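User: Quick sanity check before I run a bigger batch. Here is a single chain. Can you write out its predicted 3D structure?
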Amino acid sequence: MKKYFELFVVVEVQKTFYNPPSPETLRNWRVSAPSGFEFTVKAWQLITHPPSSPTYRKAGLKLNASSQVGFFKPTREVFDAWERTREACTILGARVCVFQTPRSFKETPENIKNMKEFFSSISDGVEFAWEPRGWSPETVKLLCEELKILHVVDPFNTLPATQSETVYFRLHGSPPGKKLYRYKYTESDLAWLAGEVKRLSGRVYVMFNNVYMKEDALKFKSIIFQQPPP
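Assistant: Done. Predicted structure follows.
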């Protein structure tokens, strides 16, 4: 983590998605970070992902098929998971909490209802950001505006369905995603991205989530700030 503190001004914490670190570990990160360094937090998968998701195996978590987790269900398990996520946001001083839903989280009346109940029931002084998969722009726009949450997108695939003072990009790989995570962004890709970011006002987060994330993020940083990479 120390190296990231030296190279960047913000990181998105992925460990909170798989299995949140202990409060002690989170406090150590916060204390070790330089003044002004920012963390964003990815919400624990128990909130967003069903028990069948392979991401639980990756995290070493064993869930029963009957576990009442994921899809923003109004259950004790989901709200307990939110409390763990909220605690991480508080300790790290996060401004944004990202909720990434899987493609299996379909655009259904039940899922929309659960989303509305969940986000209407929580508050934490942070901005909530949602990264959906396969939902219509019209529904995303309506939900984000009603619930006052950010629409997270990969700008090489689509643009946010809503306008807001904060924009959150997550880049997953090849435009438009053919190679996905193994794609290495070209100078041309990153120059285009820098142009898009400069046209936006307010606070813009650009988070790389590909195999070459560190290298690509440094190249992008050098382009947008017109500085040579370290």
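Residues 6 and 97 are 23 Å apart (CA to CA).

User: Great, the batch can go ahead then.
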